[in-house]
Amino acid sequence: MRSKWPERLLLLPATVWLLVMLVLPLAVVLVFSFGERGPAGGYVPAFTLAQYANLPARFTAFKNTLTLAPLGTFAALIVAYPLAYFLAVKANPRVKTILLVMIIVPFWTSILIRTYAWIFILGGQGIPKLLAMGGLEGIRLINTPTAVLIGIIYGYLPLMVFPIYVSLEKLDKRLLEASEDLGSSPLRTFRNVTLPLSMPGIATGCMLVFILLMGEFLVPALLGGGKVFFIGNALVDLFLQSRNWAYGSAVAATLVIVMLVVVSIYMKLVMRGTNQRKDMSLL
Fold it and tell me: For the chain, how far is it from start to end, CA to CA, in angstroms?
């Protein structure tokens, strides 16, 4: 027991930080979710399930989030994987450095400013005007789910690229050469060698993007124009505008539960696929 005390002391600061910054706020939200809204807003102590019974009133926000968050994650993956593959496998050092800097540079600017730039690009004087000049008139992008999806891909693309890039960077190039020497086509080499070995990066990138998208509110608010409502927008409205802290806490608690269920299922599927690939490699 004495030998474990140094480890416990080293873990104590991180444990206290985790309890204060993560567990305690979640406990407060859970307690508030069973309360009631005060006459002037805020929270009144009580024990009622009325807030959870009223969750269907925010069905549209849940539907938009649970539709566009997975779709945005998948779209970011489709865009990010070829770029990460080119950076890790094909690009020479000079080009790789330039592209990595170009991916990082947008993070030096506030996402608010970058999202405002997309309002102009997707608005009437941007892409729709160019399409109209080419004969495609009447196409509307701003204040639509498409605009929100474009903003999601742009804003979260680096978070998807870098985990995949790290996984592919560690890839032993001799495995690719051996696969080609054995007569495998490039597609088969990618399917049997590159893709399985990059799965840890794919899983990490998808989790990073998906979890953040579940609480996103800025991109839908600006590019959706109030017509594409996420749960994050509903929480901003409930806590800051209508000051219904009890109902907002119930929505937030439900969001956390949904995220835990989805992430658990996803990680279980990823682990099952990883184990199956290991078993096949042993055979």
Answer: 44
| Domain boundaries, position 152 | 64-282
Q: How many domains does the chain have?
A: 1
Whether 48 is in a domain gets the answer no
What is the C-alpha radius of gyration for the chain, rounded to an integer number of angstroms?
A: 23
283 residues of the chain, pLDDT tens digit each = 556 777 888 888 988 998 888 889 999 999 999 999 988 888 999 999 999 999 999 999 999 999 999 999 999 999 999 999 999 888 888 888 888 888 888 888 888 888 888 998 998 788 888 888 888 777 888 899 999 999 999 999 999 999 999 999 888 788 878 888 788 888 888 888 888 888 889 999 999 999 999 999 999 999 998 888 899 999 999 998 889 999 999 999 999 999 989 888 888 877 776 665 555 454 4
Give the global pTM.
Answer: 0.86
Burial 183-217 (b: 16+ CB within 10 A, else e): ebeeeebbebbbebbbebbbbbbbbbbbeebbbbb
Helix axes 24-32, 245-282, angle to 10 degrees: 130
